[in-house]
Amino acid sequence: MQQKTALILGVSGQDGAYLAKHLLSKGYKVHGSSRRDKYQRITNLDRLGIHDDVQIHSIQTDDFYSLFRTLRILRPDEIYNLSGQTSVGLSFEVPIETFASIANGTLNILECLRMLDIPTKLFNAGSSECFGNTPLPAAEETPFQPRSPYASAKAAAFWMTANYRESYGLPVCTGILFNHESPLRPSQFVTRKIISAAARISRGSGERLRLGRLSIYRDWGWAPEYVDAMWRMLQGDAMDDFVIATGQSQSLEDFVAVSFETVGLNWRDHVDVDASLFRPSEIDHSVGNPLKAQRLLGWKAEKGISAVIAELMSTELETAAC
Amino acid sequence: MGKVALITGVTGQDGAYLAELLLAKGYDVHGTKRRASSFNVGRVDHLFKEENGATPAFQLHHADLTDSTSLIRLVQDIQPDEIYNLAAQSHVQVSFETPEYTANADGTGTLRLLEAIRLLKLEGKTRFYQASTSELYGMVRETPQTELTPFYPRSPYAVAKLYGYWITVNYREAYGIHASNGILFNHESPIRGETFVTRKITRAVAAIEHGRLNKLSLGNLDARRDWGHARDYVEGMWRMLQQPAGDDYVLATGETHPVREFVTLAFSHIGRTIEWVGSGTEEKGLDARDGTLLVDIDPRYFRPTEVDLLLGNPAKAAEKLGWKATTPFEDLVREMVLSDVELLKTEPVRYSYRD
Question: Binding of NADP(+): at which residues (chain A) (predicted)?
């Protein structure tokens, strides 16, 4: 069988790096792009030891021509669109760039596929943020109710993808991913922020950790498992959208408590709640229903919150020890 | 009360040197950076200081030149006395691959900042520095180049910067904004981006010194550049904004050196003498002692359209600003090589030094 070719847009992020590793292990020829140009090193690929196994291109999805030129030559079997501004908090500060990189970016990819008329399959990274508050676990048919510029842009990208599948028969789909963590999360994400601070405090840094609302509930999974779900979504003949989640939710307070417990501390002695970190509009409760993925993709999240925290903390302590 | 400055692109080489200079002069310095999925504030990390309760003198903000409202909000919040627009997609080669983004960030991005000043009615308060570039001269119309030499841009990067240049002049003339262009010739330092040829050379020389790399591959060895030290150039930027009126200035050393000379000099600092043999793409740099191959040519590094001899005439800056590039070429090369030799002692080994 001929070697498959995949292009990962946004390969420098957490999911991009894990997905690259996953696809390489399945024998794919892996191409990637990052908004940082191809001459810069991608530290997350370095950390996974695969920097030289991935061919990097200078593509920005909001630059139509850069995308078109590369796709015309590569004609990949699969594209994974993981690119775009990824921080909900930052999207209130840079709403226009957020929309351009997520919504226009996805539209540019779809237009390229339409114009080039190539049988390339597209996985588009959706987001649980599109659901807004979910008192009950959100499934694929749950209506969207986005509560941030980030979520609104992701909702637009979702619908654009669904439209191109239905209007033009393109093999494209969106995975609506709930939170998924790993040591490759950038330090401004709350989970990394908590884990890093707990690790430093356990070594005597004496600092205080400032956090926003602790009463929010999230459905946290393990990123390396979620990239497998992305891949599975492109292996069938019929394209469809899936919720990818653990199905369990925990409060941020629980996350903090378990993280500090792991290093033998009581979080109440070290954490301050800072109202300035509250978002203009926060989601109180976010949990997904992953049954469709389990039924049709044979995918299930194995690691729950305790296992995720344990993994994060052990990597954090190892890295700090070097 | 101290002055307030806003530096876009503060995480780059010039941003870091300029922030240091302004902090030393007592400014409150605000810098912007774009989002990124990996850590990239290494150049300004040392500027953050804990100041019990007091507002720190250096603050970093997220903003993006492609996002108008992020810029307007920021300018409104900090009411800067001076804005230095150093943010850009600054890689010439990359601009051939992402021309649309380059135009958006480097061209329209400049317009967005000027519009923010205008919209917020800060024309009488906020002075504006635009980082223009010797790349504007491209296929040069005369040598050396002055403020009066016509432009002939030869890359999407240079064309985008050309728009940034003229829109800055236009807003100065149309709305009375104190706005200036610094037409800067190449300026380097130990924190130059690793993709620029000088840093690529000094990193490779250091890697060879530490036995991590065998040879260095380069493009056009005969390309000549007017190379100064970034530390000198940020002083020139600041001086432009202290003048009674905005104007445009060339900042340059006034002398050029070929890439080949940079390479030869760099190797001399690790005790290697280069002997050049062959010509064209077959040219090689050998270790004069034992004939080891240290430098070869890779045509992939040639540009689609190469620029000619860039040599700046800094006479106007000398006369009006009292500015001069003071760091000699030899000192620049030495500082860069020694810094990289030191850096690579402790830097984790990468999987390769290919780029």
Answer: 213
Q: What percentage of chain A carries pLDDT values higher than 90?
A: 85
The answer to whether residue B282 is catalytic is no
Question: How far is B86 from B98, CA to CA, in rounded Å?
Answer: 19
Element (H, E) at B7: strand B4-8
List pLDDT tens digits, range A146-200: 989 999 999 999 999 999 999 999 999 999 999 999 999 888 789 999 999 999 9
Could you tell me which chain A residue has the CA closest to the CA of B63?
A94
What pLDDT is attached to residue B139? 86
Are residues A66 and B35, on separate chains, in Cβ contact within 8 Å? no
| A60-70 pLDDT tens trace | 998 999 999 99
Residue of B34, B35, B65 best to disrupt the A interface, most CBs of A under 10 A: B35
Of residues A144 and A187, the one with the higher pLDDT is: A144
Same domain? For B151 and B19 the reply is yes
Give CA A56 to chain center in angstroms: 20
Tens of pLDDT, residue by residue over B76-113, are 999 999 999 999 999 888 898 899 999 999 999 999 99
- CATH 3.90.25.10 residue ranges of chain A are 182-219+249-286+304-321
**Which chain B residues have a beta carbon less than 8 Å from that of A65?**
98-100
CATH assignment of A5-180+222-244, among 3.30.450.20, 3.40.50.720, 3.30.70.20, 3.20.20.80: 3.40.50.720
> Which tokens sit at A172?
């494209």
Question: Alpha helices, DSSP H only, in chain A?
Answer: 14-25, 43-47, 64-74, 88-91, 95-99, 105-116, 149-168, 190-202, 223-233, 252-262, 291-297, 305-321
Contact A186 B66 (CB under 8 A): no
Contact B193, B199 (CB under 8 A): yes
3-state DSSP call for residue B340?
Answer: helix
Does CATH place domain A182-219+249-286+304-321 in 2.40.50.320?
Answer: no
What is the domain extent for residue B301?
197-225+257-307+329-346
Q: Using one digit for the tens of pLDDT, what is the confidence trace for A196-252?
A: 999 999 999 999 999 999 999 999 999 999 999 999 999 988 999 999 999 999 999
Q: Residue B176: give its domain's CATH number.
A: 3.40.50.720
Residue A314 pLDDT greater than 50, yes or no = yes
B137/B8 same-domain check: yes
User: Which portions of chain B are predicted below pLDDT 70?
Assistant: 1, 37-39, 49-54, 304-307, 349-355
Tokens of A272: 């301050």
B153 and B220: one domain? Answer: no
Total beta-carbon pairs less than 8 A apart between chain A and chain B: 108
Q: Which residues contact A202 (CB under 8 A, 6 or more apart)?
A: A263, A264, A265
Q: How far away is chain B from the Cα of A96, in angstroms, using its nearest Cα?
A: 5
- How far from chain centre, in Å, is Cα A109? 18
State whether B97 and A59 contact (CB < 8 Å): yes
In a shared domain, residues B152 and B15: yes
Question: Three-class SS of residue A96?
Answer: helix
Q: Are A93 and B70 in contact (CB under 8 A)?
A: yes
